[in-house]
Structures are given as C-alpha cells and as structure tokens.
Design goal:
Chain B: It is a multi-pass membrane protein. Chain B: The chain crosses the membrane at residues 12-35, 41-60, 81-101, 107-128, 140-163, 183-205, 217-239, 269-294, 306-325, 337-355. The structure holds 3 protein chains of 3 kinds. Chain B has 15 helices and no strands. Chain B is an all-alpha fold. The longest helix of chain B is centred in the N-terminal third of the chain and has 33 residues, at 79-111. The radius of gyration of chain B is 20 Å and the shape is globular. Chain C is mostly helical. Chain C has 2 helices and no strands. Classes of the chains: A alpha/beta, B mainly alpha, C mainly alpha. Chains in contact: A-B, B-C.
Chain lengths: 412, 372, 67
C-alpha cells in the first residue's frame, strides 16, 4: 500500500481537469437580447454619387482595397425590439403597440448587400441575426439591374430560411420597411401574411425565396416574384408577377394575370373573380373560380415544341349587375360557360404571348420539354439561353373547359 | 464470458448505422453532378455496386467464420503480402475516420456553431468515438442497435414531409444525361458505403455466421433505400440545377421542410441533432475497425490501448485539408482509392481462396474470445 | 505540413492530445493489463504511452523554441 498513496491525489486532479471545460463557456453563446433579430430587409438601387457621400469605408478603402464599381444599394432592415414584440394573442403587454414601436428601422448604403450589412453592423451594437428573416423587398430598379448578388448572399448565409418571401416593389422598397399597417403589430409579418393568405385564398402561387431560386436555376424555367405596391393607408397590394430572365427582371404582369398563371399551372384552391359580359355591357355576371386543373402536353412539330394546355375550372356564380338575366335555366348557365371559355382562351394565350416576347418562361414549359423530350432538348436546346430563344418560337394551343356549379343563396 | 452473441438483426443494424453518416448531406450534390435528373438512378446503381462488393466480402468472411480479415488474408496469400494489404486497410480506415471527423467539423462550423474552432468540434467527436471504441465487439453491436431507429425515423420523416413541395417533373428524364459521368458518380456513391467493411470484424463474433449474408443484404438495402429516397426527395423538391448550387442539399431540404401546422418551421436543427448521432456511429465503426485491425496485425488480444494512441494522429490527418473545397476533392479521391481496398482486394482474395481451396472451419462451435 | 498551415494553429491541440493520450494509456491501460495478466499487451501499451508522451514533449519543446 505504500506506493499507492498518490492515487487519490491523481484522481482528484483528474476530476478537476474534467471540470475545467465547464468553466470556459461556449464560443457560440449569444443571448437572445444580444442579437439584433432582422425580420425584414429592403434593398433599393441608388445612384453612386449620392450614396458615396453617405457611406463610410467599412469593407473597402480607397487605395488598397477598392470598392466594386457596380451600382450601389440602400439596404433598410427591420430589427425586432426585444420585449416589444407580442408573443401571443393574449399578451397585451403595453396595449397600444402600434407597428412603429415593435421594430426599429435603419437604413444604410453599400456597394453590395454584404457591404451594406457590414456598414449596418458597424452601427448596430448587437450581432445581426437573420434566422427570423421573413421578407426581403427589392425595388424594381434593382431587380431590373439584376439580383445575382442578392441571391448569392442569402443563399450562402446559413441562417436564412428558404420559406422567406422575396418580392419586387414598384417604386422604392424602403417604404415597405417604414410602413405601419394596422392589422399586424410587426410590419414584416403583415407583408408575409398578405402573401401567405394569398396562397390560401388561391390568389397567389407558392413562391417562397427557395422556390424562386429553384426556378431561376432550372434550365427550362424562369423565376418570378410577387410584384407589390404601397397602397393607401400604408397598405400593401399585390399588383402582379414580376418575371425574370435569369436574375434580371424583364417585366411584370397585371394582377388578374396572376390568375392566368395559376390557371395554366392548375394551382388549387382557385380564388379569382372575373366579369363575363353576356350580350352587351349591361348584362354582366361575375364568376368565382373554385377549383382548377390543368394538363400540359408537349409534342415536337418541325423542330418546334408545340404545347397543348388543357385547363378545366369550376366556377361559382357570384353576382350579376342587373336583373335582366335570369339564372334559373341550365341553358343560361351553359351559355355563360361558353362565353367565358372563349374569353379565357384568349386571356391565357395573351398572357403566354406576353411572356414569350421577353423569353421569360415562368410557367416552366421548358421543363416539360427537358423531361419528356430529352433527345430534342439535347439536340436543340441544351442551356437556359437556348430555351429562352426556343420559347419565343414555341406554339401554344389553349383549351379551356368551364363548369358553373353553384349560384349562391339566391334562386334566380 | 459469452462470446458469439451478435444476432442477424444486430449485424444489419451495425451496417445501416455505419453506412448512414456524414455523406448524407452532400449525397444529392454528388448524384446530381453525375447525372442531373437521373440522380436517383445513379444512386441506385451506386448502391448496386456496393451490394456486389459487400456480397463478395461476406462470402469471403463466411468461408472463414472463425477468423478475422487479417488472419485469413494471411492464410490465403501468405504472410508478407497479406501484411501489406492489412497495413493499407488500416491506413485507409484511419484516413476515412479523420475525413469523416473533418467533414463533420466543417458542417458544424459553417451552419451551426460559427465561432467555435473547427479543431474543437473535431476533437470532441473523435474523443467520443475513441472512448466508445474501448469496448468489445458485443458492446459495439449494442451501441449501433440502440441508435439504429434514431437514424431511420427522422430521415424518413423529412423525406415524407418534403413531398409536399415535390414536383415529379424534376425527376424526369430518369436516365440522366451523360453515361461517362454517370460511371464516375456511381463510384463516388459506392464509396460512401465503404464502412460496410466492418462486417469482416462482426462475422467472427456472430452467433450464426451462416446467416451473415441475410444481415448484410438487409443492412445495405435499408441504407441504400434510404439514400435513394433522400436523393429523390431532394431532386424532386429543388430540381437538379438548384442542387448544383447547394453544398449540402439534404440540410437545405430539412431547412425547407416544416412540420404540419407550423409546429416547427424549419427542421434543420432537429435534423442536425440526428445527423450528429449518425456521424458518431459511422466514426465509431471506422475508428473501431482501425484499432481492431491494428491489434490483430500485432497479434494482440486487446485493442483498447490503441484508441487513445491513435487520437493525435487521426486528428492531424483530419486537419490536413486546407479548405472545404480541397477537403471534398480529397474525400472523393480517397473514396475511389478505397474501392480498390475494400472491394477489389477482398474479391481477389475470394478468388484465390477458391482456387487454392482454402477455407476455415465451416461450423463454428468453439468459443472465440470476443475481444479478439 | 505544420509550417504550411500556419493560420490554423492546431499544433497546441496536437500537443495536448499526445500528452493526454500518453498519460491515459499509462494510467488506465497498462494497469488494467497488469491486473488481467496480459503481459505482451502491457508491454505494448507501455511503449505506446511513452511514445505519445515523448512526441508530445518534442512538439512542445519545438513550439517553445521556434516561437
């Protein structure tokens, strides 16, 4: 036993050694009040002359680390104020809680998105945290200049979720950050719910930032984004789809043409209402689509893809403008269906033509060619550019069949 | 001490949890780079190749149910030649261990713990594996069996939930584009299955070595099926072109998937937690195999002294790749070299043993020390 | 190898690991083999343990000298 006296001491030292790691703390410890939770971001294109004066040299220095020459951006962020965000419906906490008090909006300029965020970080004490980023609004000017940098930055950042919304604003994007809509206490969440509810009501396709990225990447499809505008009373309106060539915006649709997109893709539920003029402008009725179905077929005729789009929509009759038309006869309903079918074919074809002019295949017809006619694709198309020019020449045949099922609670 | 106790289910579980590991994250990227929309097909072909390799290895091991790989390779081709082969295998598996640990570290540093030094993540993981490898093969089997359901369920859940966003058209045409690239991709994917070599250490401790084939087929088919499902889910949700833009498509898939009713809006944290276990079991197997083979090469009856001894060396190897791009290049080439070691070499041994009519005792009734 | 990756200063970790593994082998494994009566294993572990400690010490020395 005489040589073993040191064993307890060694054991004690070992135990102490085991405790040491607990004292060091964690590298990535970041308390919730130490992070600046960014809920929304807006990005505007600005002219270099104005911005250069305002900007500090944070990630570049004239001389040694020159800034890129590409146009400059103004980035505004909505940072959640800790403690002010209501956590649940029951939690009044302060009661008044108008939107302006729950978030803090700051804006900076920079040469690129990352540069702008670094300029911002230089001003904000807490670490910017993008894990709860819900909405990114870019101005139309920037979208037309190209979104490569935006896509790259947010794709590379591991915190950003693919379920966030990216949207294009008519005019300045920063307005969407400073707006204070009344329905929701957090403005960014209001913007998000506008679009999320749009999906639920059949007024907007699923187009999260992840889906947009996928569409931009695909060879036979172009991306599109919600096109939004600031309305009265700080409200937000969806005024169409902004469609892209690669990461460059090339045009925008009208609001009703979103319904055209949804119809061609057969997205459910359906939710758009349209006027149908029966003989003369006086006798119009309004119908509401409830269910859509579409079938897209592709065939190659003379080395040009020919698409047949079969759209079937179920309708409810919603309203009529005067009492001249009696809705109590199946034949009348049938005539309304016929009338609307004729109009719809024209409507869908026009929308497709509109995108064809720009070579922006937001419907993904090219994906059908790639998937079902691979030989043709490899011989004649191959790349995204190839499809862009091929799309302009493609032929489309739209067939629409409509069925009015219900007329509401009124008998006539 | 009871010796031969590993059952067929345990053996299959060992295989599954060994195969499913760090490679899951980058798997869709490898598959898509090889075959665009034919990624599920190329994965399936890769699995097929791995199945063939594993079947040959199993046949070989079943010829010598009482011996480990090191021992019967000496019986078949003579001591000096076999020792060269054994040393190569040991080196290969220690490199595999270190690369697994490094890849794990890189993922964690990039996506979750962004300011923790990568060295620390790697050391913690290696230490965990090293401590676990001090047990004998029976405990080894129990640990794998314990984690086995934990790996399967969440991955299947994510694949099932992501179907909500899936588009079948992304999977067409199923045969992909370029046959030459496909062959290369097939090898890359088959290389993800190299952990199956652990079977050569498991069979000598199996209750009924004659049923080893059943275990190996079940194991690799479950793991392979899971891999195909993951690739198919990722491709159908993102499309092949988008996957080429993503370093870890499976992680991105978990990020894009939400539980119904928005209970969890993104599953990447949950997925990473499971994935850590998957990495651990893979690391555990390759580490175990390394020290187990070393101890057999030196005819020792215990292997645990090597578990700590190897740690600094494995760690240094893990730190050798200079950056993440280089790391993936190394992983791919090491994997392809590994195919020679884990498939071609055992196949040669099998044919030579058939030609020379060498085989071990067919019925293994004698007691074998589990620590061997 | 080590000079090449001077930005990643993982040498400290290697030293720590070498010393730690050496000590652990000497303290745990050598003793347990002694009790179990496995003589060859005991000798090997003793060698491995001292080997690790020596390597760790050499690395530590070289770091102290060259920095």
């Amino acid at each position: 036993m005489r040589i073993k006296w040191w064993i307890p001491i060694v054991k004690a030292i070992c135990c102490l050694c085991l405790v040491v790691p607990f004292l060091t703390g964690c590298w990535d410890r970041l308390e919730i009040e130490e992070r600046a939770v960014v809920l929304g971001v807006s990005i505007d294109a600005v002219s270099s002359d104005d911005a250069n004066e305002e900007e500090d040299e944070v990630s570049h220095i004239s001389g040694s680390i020159p800034a890129p020459s590409k146009g400059m951006v103004r980035v505004a962020v909505q940072i959640a104020l800790p403690g002010r965000i209501p956590l649940g419906p029951g939690e009044g906490g302060g009661g008044k809680g108008s939107a302006g008090e729950t978030v803090w909006v700051i804006d900076v300029v920079g040469h690129s998105i990352d540069d702008a965020f670094m300029n911002l970080q230089q001003q904000v004490s807490s670490k910017l945290f993008f894990g709860h980023l819900r909405v990114i609004v870019v101005s139309e000017k920037l979208a037309r200049r190209g979104l490569e940098n935006v896509n790259d930055y947010f794709r590379r950042n591991p915190e950003v979720r693919r379920m966030a919304w990216l949207m294009v604003a008519k005019g300045n994007a920063i307005k969407f950050m400073t707006a204070t809509p009344q329905l929701e206490r957090v403005p960014a969440l209001y913007l998000m719910s506008t679009l999320d509810e749009g999906i639920r009501m059949g007024k907007f396709p699923k187009d999260y930032i992840g889906i947009f990225w996928s569409n931009v990447s695909k060879k036979g499809q172009e991306g599109f984004l919600p096109y939004v505008e600031m309305k009265k009373e700080q409200n937000v309106g969806i005024i169409g789809l902004a469609y892209f060539n690669d990461a460059k915006m090339v045009g925008a649709t009208k609001p009703l043409e979103i319904a055209g997109y949804l119809g061609v893709k057969g997205v459910n539920p359906a939710g758009y209402r349209v006027y149908i003029q029966l003989d003369g402008a006086q006798e119009s009725v309004m119908t509401n689509a409830t269910h859509r179905r579409s079938k897209i077929k592709v065939s190659i005729i003379d080395n040009v893809p020919q698409f047949t789009i079969d759209i079937a929509i179920e309708l409810n009759l919603e309203a009529k403008l005067n009492e001249n038309v009696k809705i109590n006869d199946p034949r009348i309903l049938q005539s309304i269906e016929k009338k609307q079918e004729g109009l719809s074919v024209l409507f869908y074809s026009n929308l497709i033509k509109k995108t064809q002019v720009k070579g922006a295949d937001i419907f993904g017809f090219g994906e059908y060619v790639r998937a079902f006619k691979p030989q043709f694709w490899h011989a004649h198309v191959k790349t995204a550019e190839g499809w862009r020019s091929m799309y302009k020449e493609s032929k489309f045949e739209v067939k629409v069949s409509l069925k009015i099922r219900r007329i509401g609670m009124k008998a006539q | 001490m009871e010796s031969r106790q590993i059952t067929v289910i345990q053996a299959a579980a060992i295989l599954v949890s060994t195969i499913i590991g760090v490679g899951v994250l980058a798997l869709p990227l490898f598959a898509v780079q090889a075959a665009d929309s034919g990624a599920p097909l190329v994965t399936m072909l890769g699995v097929l190749l791995a199945v063939i390799g594993l079947v040959l290895v199993t046949l070989l091991s079943m010829r010598f149910p009482n011996h480990t790989f090191i021992q019967y390779s000496e019986l078949i081709i003579g001591k000096s030649l076999a020792r060269i082969g054994s040393v190569l295998i040991i080196i290969f598996f220690s490199i595999l261990t270190s690369l697994t640990a490094r890849e794990f570290g890189e993922v964690v540093v990039t996506s979750v713990l962004r300011s923790t030094p990568v060295e620390v993540t790697v050391i913690v993981m290696l230490l965990l594996a090293a401590i676990s490898t001090r047990n004998n093969i029976i405990t080894f089997a129990y640990i794998h069996t314990f984690y086995f359901p934990l790996l399967l369920v969440p991955v299947l859940l994510i694949a099932a939930l992501s179907l909500k966003n899936a588009e079948v058209i992304n999977l067409l045409p199923v045969w992909g584009t370029d046959p030459k690239k496909m062959l290369k991709g097939m090898l890359t994917i088959a290389a993800l299955f190299q952990g199956t070599f652990v079977l050569t250490a498991v069979i000598p401790a199996m209750k009924k070595p004659s049923k080893a084939m059943k275990a190996s087929l079940w194991g690799i088919l479950i793991a392979g099926g899971l891999y195909v499902i993951i690739v198919a889910a990722a491709v159908s949700v993102f499309g092949s072109e988008e996957i080429k833009q993503l370093l870890w498509p499976t992680l991105e898939l978990a990020k894009a998937t939400s539980l119904p009713a928005n209970i969890l809006e993104r599953l990447d944290a949950a997925f990473l937690a499971v994935w850590v276990t998957a990495v651990f079991t893979t690391l555990f197997s390759s580490y175990y195999l390394t020290i187990y083979f070393i101890s057999h090469l030196f005819r020792l009856r215990e292997h645990k002294q090597f578990s700590y001894f190897l740690l600094p060396f494995v760690f240094v190897t893990a730190m050798l790749p200079q950056n993440i791009v280089q790391m993936y290049e190394i992983i791919e080439s090491v994997g392809r070299i590994g195919l020679y070691i884990t498939i071609v070499y055992p196949t040669l041994l099998l044919f030579i043993s058939i030609l020379r009519k060498k085989r071990g005792n067919p019925i293994a009734n004698q007691m074998v020390d589990p620590n061997r | 190898m080590i000079s090449e990756s001077y930005t990643m200063s993982y040498l400290n970790y290697v030293i720590l690991l070498c010393l730690l593994s050496g000590i652990l082998i000497l303290v745990i494994d050598v003793r347990s083999f002694e009790i179990a009566g496995l003589n060859k294993e005991r000798k090997v572990s003793k060698f491995l343990g001292w080997f690790s400690i020596i390597i760790g010490s050499i690395l530590m020395m070289s770091e102290i000298i060259f920095q």
